[in-house]
Amino acid sequence: MDKEVVLKKIQEQELLLLKECIKLCENNSIEYFALGGTLLGAVRHQGFIPWDDDIDLGIPRKYYDKLIELLSDNEEVVLEKNIINLNVLQYKKKENIQIGSESYSVYIDLFPLDGAPNGKIARKVFLTKFLLYRVLYKFSIIDKLNIVDRGFVGNLVVGLMKKSKIYKILSSERLVEKLHKIAATYSFDNSDFGGNILGRYREKEIVSKKIFGNSKLLKFEDIEIRSPEDYDGYLKHIYGDYMKLPDKKNRIAHFEEMKSKE
């Protein structure tokens, strides 16, 4: 089936999940922020990035457990840990959707927002320690990764690590537990810096708390979502010139990326 048709159907289902999640947050005074490509889509396209279907929300950790408890009451969805993505929780439809001959999972990613040390050197040490454990964790699950579409160097590293069997001596459960423990060391509310340390952009995800500030409402498809107050500063910090569209060869839908890398 045509990729654009598949993408549109997945986006429609994810938007329904997003609406449910936002309604719960608003009704229970739970603070949240659109992050990453979701925020980029809201600012640049007033909705989904046209070629993407990724939805990321960040929730300060003090609200995180409360939201998870509320979401767990919906019998039509499940909360599932994404082992490839540091056990970040996915709010996911219980049943995959069928589009043509293919079956697709529909979910949104829920990231806890944590603090980081205020001092520049202490923050660097903290993030370096976290990155080390993150690398070890990726090694521990390397047998679950596909080498497709990672580029020559990425494919080579993954292939060699699989052959070395080093991952067999690493405990992925202990490592990911340690990662989350490190991430939660500093309170988001009581720190001058913070963000989504578990996110794909690693240390770039940690920004001045002034950037988050008081959330703003931005149009996203037919609803409004909350964004960091200084969303321009956030997007520039992560993407640089974020209003510039990527080359067509780099416009990869999230569902295609996940199918090739997981």
TrEMBL record:
Domain LicD/FKTN/FKRP nucleotidyltransferase: 25-240
InterPro entries: LicD/FKTN/FKRP_NTP_transf, LPS_cholinephosphotransferase
BP GO terms, sorted: glycoprotein metabolic process
Superkingdom, taxonomy of origin: Bacteria
Pfam family for this entry, one: LicD
Protein name: LicD/FKTN/FKRP nucleotidyltransferase domain-containing protein
Annotated source species: Gemella haemolysans M341
Lineage: Bacteria, Bacillati, Bacillota, Bacilli, Bacillales
